[in-house]
Amino acid sequence: MSNSRDENDLNQLSDIYDTLRADAREIIHDLQGGVTMWREAAGANIAVAGFVIVLMLTTVTFGPVGTEGLILRLAYLAVAIASIYYAVIGFKKYSQLRRKYSGLFAKAKKLE
């Protein structure tokens, strides 16, 4: 029973390797795009945080006062902090993936 399962697993792995071999350039290109997307998403989060901080500062000068103004500014602050948090996570993930796949990307670049 185990031998049949091992043979089935081996056949499935062989099919996967055949697909990887046939589409290697496209797969590497897609992988590079996915890694780069982490950096771009983190940068977008930084932009959102900056925009929200500007909004927050604008409401200090021109916005509502009292409890309503405080709640609005705290909401802006929460969004800015969340955006910065996710930006840090995104840049960290980008760095990890870039380091993990740098050898593969270098080899693929030599083939171009």
Explain what you see.
With 112 residues, this protein is an all-alpha fold. It has one domain (24-111). 95% of the residues lie in helices and 0% in strands. The chain has helices spanning 2-22, 24-62, 66-111. Helix 2 runs antiparallel to helix 3.
Keyword list:
112 residues; 0% strand
Shape: elongated
Count of runs of 4 or more consecutive helical residues: 3
Order of helices and strands: HHH
Helical percentage: over 70%
Distance between the termini: 46 Å
Radius of gyration: 24 Å
Quickly give the structural class.
Answer: mainly alpha
Number of strands: 0
State the domain count: 1
Average residue pLDDT: 90
Question: What ranges have pLDDT less than 50 throughout 5 or more consecutive residues?
Answer: none
Describe the SSE topology:
Blueprint: H1 2-22, H2 24-62, H3 66-111
Helix pairs in contact: 2-3
